[in-house]
Protein 1
Amino acid sequence: MKIHPIRLKPNDDLKQSLKNFAHQKNIQAGFILSGIGSLKQAQIRFANQQISTKLTEEFEIVAINGTIATTGIHLHIAIADGQGKTIGGHLDQGCIIYTTAEIIICESKNFIFDRTFDAQTGYQELEIRYRDE
């Protein structure tokens, strides 16, 4: 396992920055260990919805979870507003950093994560392969 800490700065796009990082470091099978920070705009696709919802206020990032690889990322995010109300869903492009985001990515050298179409779900889904295959 290899650990990759990353700090994003104001106005960075959270999802695009993580995609870029995966390509820059050639991460083949990674996952988020920890993720906190703040957003000044959120773009989240809620459960069973076809399109994302844009939220334009400041939020605390209370959690980010999911997989990350050069072949794609699948992340969920939980955010809290100024009153502590928490919502979450599928992270989409358009989540813009307010002050910072501190993300810790763990990379496994034993696996390769691919994204392949799954006819049953209709989505690109995680395909896990052992690296020595």
Note: Residues 2-130 form a domain with the 60s Ribosomal Protein L30; Chain: A; fold (CATH 3.30.1330.80).
Protein 2
Amino acid sequence: MAQRDATASISTETDSWYSWRRAVYSVLIGMVTNASLWTSVTLMPALQNEFALTRTEASYPYIAIMIGYLVGGPTLGRLSDKYGVSNVLLVGSFFASLGYVVGGMAHHFGLFLLTQLFVGLGAAVGVAPLTADISHWFRRRRGLAVALVSSAGYLSGAFWTTVIADVLHDGSWRDVHMLIGAALLAVVPLSFLVRRRVSSDVLDEADRRSAQKAKQSGLSPAAIKWILAVAGVSCCIAMAIPQIHLVALCQDLGFTVSQGSELLSMMLLGGIVSRLLCGAIIDIVGPISILLVGSLLQMLALALYIPADGLASLQVVSIVFGLAQGGILPSYPLIVREYLPARSAGATIGFITTATIFGMAFGGLLSGWIYDLTGSYFVAFLNGIGWNILNMLLIGLLVLRIRTPPVVRASQVGVA
């Protein structure tokens, strides 16, 4: 009787109307906090001119933000597991807002880089903690819900790159920093809408399910975690080239910052469509298959960037790239939720997210260094394709191990 009561409680608590409202609140929060992923990308030419930087040095602000994410992701994830996502949202939004405002007043590049560390440290609350939190509130539609919340990063990019281009038309990059610093204060009232925490019955059942699946796979939780982490690094090194350097690439080809920002927005909108579609499909076929297919399509899209040199061709390729890699990133936390403990989901997803963020930061730096060395992005795209192949090999290994039926392995032992 107690088991039936617990099951009934879980079924009414997850996939409910409140769950979907919470997902919408999380998207709104993510759209504000994820502005940090796009400001240094769209402001790269302006910062390069302001501080007299090389293209490699112009990548440093993005890297500083990513280092902040590296620290903030797992730390805030663990804190959200313990204290709830609402409390860490309050702390994180304050740090990010402070970083933007002080950075907008900085006149020395070293000080500006320091403020970007605070931006990344605080803004990390809008990635892993939000994703882990929403995953607890869904079971049947978890893939779609996680895809929806993770698409906040792309929605944020599509929104903020357009806003930034408009602000730069009549103002400066400092105005952009002040605007986003003020916008982050909107996270405070939104955080009170997600104060409710999921019940222990939901977490207990999720832990039972994930333990059983991990045992059937024949892989230890640590092995699954590290395979995902290394795969995430290699995937995001490849992903970083268009997402970080597209605006700069457009300027090299004779296009304006506004046109480059429009291309980036088109890429992100394609990613939103793909992410939501893949999220729905994941609920049917599982996240690992989608991750492997997405990695293959991303590699093909990277190859298409090499010959593209006109505005029309870049538009087509940018949309293709967005569609290709839209389902990749939500697959990682969904695999974590299927095979690893739910009660430490924030910390584990934070760890995996940190790996992907490191890949983005390193990929952005590496691409800038290759550009300074060769004078073009041709070799940078080839480098990205190589890293993408490594990602496919690792995910392919995971597919083979997890998809091998344990019953077959047992029967083979019996026959022998």
Note: The first helix runs from residue 2 to 13.
Protein 3
Amino acid sequence: MAYKPRGALDGLEENIVTGVWDNSCKYHRLMANENPYGCSALIKEALLKTMEDGPSNYPDGYTTALRMAVSKKYGIDKDEILFGNGTDEIIYMLGKAFIEPGDEVVMPEISFTSYISSCLSMGGKLVSVPMKDDLSVDLDAVLASVTDKTKYIVVVNPNNPTGTVFCEKEQYEFLKKVPKDVLVILDEAYAEFYMGESFPDSYSKLKEFKNLIILKTFSKIYGLASFRVGFMIANKEIISLVSRVKNAFNVSTPAMAAAVAAINDSKFTEMVSENNSKCIKYLCKELDEMGYSYTPTHTSFILIDIKKDAAPLVAALSKKAYLVRPGSDFGLKNYIRVSIGTMEQMEGFVKAFKECLE
């Protein structure tokens, strides 16, 4: 069978166990943290307008309309924002802009893997910091791993793939202790799913901490994963440096229009957040009753401990049309990471989960 990159299904769904292509079965993609509710209804009209305005023209290289919308949404200066073809591109731009051979990047050992390849591709050295026993990020251990060779620190909050979060006080105390010449990349891709009362206000800290870089995405709560729109927020000097390695037209006109429509539809994101919370509570209740432990999550996914090699369970679930992420991808072979779908999908997953375990 010809090689196909992860997620490239071309209208067909691949049985990840047998390798057989089958378009007669509807697979539930609970492995990619995609938004199960689609995207805002406002986006269709915005996309149609881009066709009327002329697809033959190059995109706005300054991303003006989207820049203004993001600036207003987060209360930040319009020139403190840089957009990318998803946050993945921004992560690689940061590597190109700052990492030289021998430079160190400090990050938790279980976190978003794009930062690893970005570091290594530029000849950098990855310094992997062990997690706490509950799989949360050990900020003190991260600080203790900083040396005079450290170029930047990466922390994802809430963390992917564990779903854990650190609070406002922890974040502030951490930032105060980081050397001023070491950059801090704070990835908040899942921040909008936070179910507590006080998620850290990172934007208010940009003036005090000139070394802070915040990453955001339109792929998760906004449901625009296929459009590939992400952005970073930082002081103008950092934005200027990273802009030097940016492609001229890295965000398409339709993607910009979709993102503007999405960020202005708060009713949609509130619905997604509310339903995500309900589904997590339902799934946790079921897992509690079955006696399976999990990492408390503040995201659109959950990490479940199977207490044994999870590979057979992943295979069995796929045969029942439920695709989940094996924890072995993150060095956690006894775990599975399950994206939170609709309530119907979660009920179906629980039924399949029980059947597979039996």
Note: Residues 266-290 form the longest helix (25 residues).
Protein 4
Amino acid sequence: MTQILYPKKENKIVREFMDTINLSTFIGRSYSFHFPKKIIFGVGSSESVGLEAKALGGSRVLLVTDKNLMQIDSIKEIEGILLREGLNVEVFSDVESEPSIEVADKIAEFARNGAYDLIVGVGGGSVLDMAKIASIAIKNPGPMRKYVGVNLVERPGVPKILMPTTAGTGSEVTNVAVITLSDEETKSAVISPYMFGDVAIVDPELTYTMPPRITASTGLDALSHALEALMAVNANPLTDALALQSIRIIVKCLPKAYKNGDTESRFGMSLGSLMAGIAFANSWVCLGHALAYSFSVTYKVPHGVSCGLSLPYAFKFNMSAIQHKIQDIAEAMGLFKEIENKEKNLGNLILSKLLNLLSDLNVPMRLKDIGVPENDIDKIANKLLTFTRLIQRNPRNVSEREAHNLIMEMWSGLTIDEYA
């Protein structure tokens, strides 16, 4: 039996935090909470895809994946499960990493021409996002660019089952499909309640073949979702609980999954990613993702790496605005002895923990390390301020001067020893 989910019950600090949850900041507000109609989690749960497809009434299935995944046995097994249920299955595997609007239009045309009544997406976040696009395209005509934005999708798509092979983007439980707009050197998204999956099947076994580099990148994406969900102004008691538990799991399991890829750490990362996905789908992300979007497309940095690089800087900037959550975050990161020492600056210790994690995962910690020239700092800072949808959810406003200082700090870098 796994022991990864909870800190030890006998820890006095943990018990005190559980008994002193601060609800005063939430009183007087109302919240909505959304996620897929059904979530199935567990080792071997992918075997249920056939029955779930039948329950949704599908007969013509479009299986969305990518060319790399087509080479592994698990995709063939999933296709076989669907075929054994008497379903007609066709495969679309032309999904690229960080898919462009052109890829979205390509899969939309393919889905419309096939007259499918069920979509099954099996892959990382890019695949799952394109599976969502395929679903809505069948019921919503025209180019996909017309749906980029918030609540622009007019009709529900066909039913969809989403099965992640990474841990993770959380795409299986969100209402977002991220699309790269190459001509604008930026990322945007189709955001709509119709983008939620009908069934999310999260099987840790599907992540076992992830190489270390992808494990690190997607794991940092999940950690960013959790920590930014805590910082976002739309955070609520439900999202905070999920985000904190996600941080507990990810901080413990990600280094192990990166180094060893053992089954326990893979299980933990799948669960932590799922929790983080539900959390940020309902509170949203904020400055960290805005920072990541400001440079990732131009300099061709994978999404998870750009989020991981940005996270310590976003947290440092926001520390003064989230003091009421610092102790909870420190506890979730396992800083029990440090919490007991009242002379310690917990915010700095959390920052040190984040920087050390990036170092352990061999992820760049400065913009100069990914080839960003110093002359581009102003351009990146200006682009940062265009992501108003994300910055509006940040607990602290970002002025033009602060944007410039932030990017300058990200270019020159933080020193781990300074915050230890």
Note: Residues 12-30+210-419 form a domain with the Dehydroquinate synthase-like, alpha domain fold (CATH 1.20.1090.10).
